[in-house]
Amino acid sequence: IDDQYRPGLARADATRHDLRLALEELVAGRPVTVAATKAAGCLIGRVRERVGAAGVTYCGEVSRLLHQHCIECHRDGEIAPFALTDYDEVIGWADALLEAIDDGRMPPWHANPRHGRFANARFMPEADRQVLRDWVAAGASYGNVEDLPELPERQSNWRLARDPDLVLPMRDRPFVVPAEGTVEYQYFVVDPGFRDDKWVTSAQVIPGNRSVVHHAIVFVRPPDGAAFRGVGWLTGYVPGQRAAMLPEGYGRRIPAGSRLVVQMHYTPNGREQEDLTKVGLLFGNETDITHEALTVIGLDQEFEIPPHAADFAVTAAPRWLPDDGDLLAVAPHMHLRGKSFQLSSRASGRETILLDVPRYDFNWQHVYEFAEPLPLDSIDRLEFTARFDNSRRNPVNPDPAQHVTWGDQTWEEMAVAFFEVAVPRGAAPASRPARRAPAEPPPRRTREAGAFVRRFFERFDHNRDGAVDESELPLSIRRFGFWELDEDGDGRLVPAEIENAVHRHGRFNPS
């Protein structure tokens, strides 16, 4: 009797053993600090006898609902811990199934339906839920086997519109993940050998060993001097995320001569393991591509969450937005203390909530694809608020007594949102802040920019040669912002480039 498990989550280890501590306190004659513990776990259903056709049946209605809403994950070989493809298995989970659905834990989707419409929403309509309730209440009858539909054909590991045009492993041999300890992010550089620009319409990462791969992200590293916008995001694998196709006529450009950088986050599981992750790409014809898709990032790296803070807010905005184009999707990212996320737009003085995630779940990191692309020229500003729970009430909190700052590992935190935007082919690379900036900065702003540039070089120009090489910067800046700052693509930042970035973004902050 401890705090290791709750419905929908599991800690690596218990942090408090209630029964053991109560017995120790009792034997020692001390007051029992926790005298009762609420039972936690899966609902225990009762075994039902198989009955014939009567009202709603498994063969008739229920199997079809499970095929539609559940077996994407709940079938042999998929991510769920049990299958829902066989009647004898389903009736054993019938009560727990209803509990998970009524609690909103399944199907996994975390956007508040009152704000925004999303093309990839996982919702079970109330009418379908009621069918399941009626079926269980009536005894979970089997029905007529002749009504049982064929099990949908299993999709291949590739969840793309077709098999990939190109499959690239992260390297030529597996990476060995140790049994224990912390594995720093690993980076593997892949040369796809592209002699011409390529337009990618969809991409997917398949982990070689899901038991130790927490996430994988593939970035495009363009050759020096290549015209390129965005953070270079190509695709990724994170818990709960589906592969997605871009709309017809849209593509991500990989300049000729580019390399792909595969970022791997491994979590040891107690036994030495091997992993060889791969990425699959679908290409479109250049003549068919009307819009270029790219990823813009918004983040704040300067926060510090105090110990025991139950509702700590961090606010940030995209670093820039194209003048013309559309917002296609947004992907929030926090770690174990992430509590909620909300994205708002401001236009003509009016604020609109575009996405509300009231219960952020680190285990299901969705990309929220808008049902209709949002025209960026109708939006004055985008801003998001990420909230964190560093209290003991957060059941997955690694240590509520810690001050928490930005970091790669899951016991640290991030406040990030990735914005998928699309611009017409050939559009000028002007950004929203640049469009609104005055022709000549006012004197006060020029002085502030100069002070920021001096602080930036004092902090990062370690060899004092008057330029900041990419290698002198923290990993987070190299990964998320270097290409945007490095205007001439020479791998070095000079004072003029930093001052220009300050005027473009309107922020005096190294992040």
Secondary structure: elements and pairs:
Elements: E1 5-6, E2 9-10, H1 18-27, H2 58-69, H3 87-92, H4 94-102, H5 126-137, E3 166-169, E4 175-177, E5 186-190, E6 198-206, E7 213-221, E8 233-237, E9 250-254, E10 259-266, E11 273-275, E12 278-283, E13 291-299, E14 312-316, E15 326-333, E16 338-347, E17 350-357, E18 368-375, E19 381-388, E20 416-424, H6 432-436, H7 443-460, E21 468-469, H8 475-480, H9 482-485, E22 492-493, H10 495-505
Parallel strand pairs: 9-13
Antiparallel strand pairs: 1-2, 3-12, 4-11, 5-10, 6-9, 6-12, 7-8, 7-10, 13-20, 14-19, 15-18, 15-20, 16-17, 16-19, 21-22
What features would you describe in this structure?
By secondary structure, the protein is an alpha+beta fold. It has ten helices and 22 strands. The strands form six sheets. The protein has an eight-stranded mixed sheet, with no helix packed on it. It has a four-stranded antiparallel sheet with strand order 5-10-7-8, with no helix packed on it. Helix 2 (58-69) packs across helix 5 (126-137), helix 4 (94-102) runs antiparallel to helix 5 and helix 7 (443-460) crosses helix 10. The longest helix has 18 residues, at 443-460. The protein is globular, with a radius of gyration of 26 Å. The two termini are 45 Å apart.
Task: State the main characteristics.
single chain, 511 residues, alpha+beta, eight-stranded mixed beta sheet, globular
Distance between the termini: 45 Å
The proportion of residues forming helix, as a percent range, comes to 10-25%
Mass-distribution shape: globular
Largest sheet: 8 strands, mixed
Which whole number gives the mean pLDDT? 85
Low-pLDDT stretches: 432-441, 505-511
Strand arrangement, major sheet: 3-12-6-9-13-20-15-18
Rg, rounded, reads 26 Å
Q: What class, by secondary structure content?
A: alpha+beta
What is the strand content?
Answer: 25-35%
Strand elements, count:
22
Counting DSSP H or I runs of 4 or more residues, the number of helices is 10
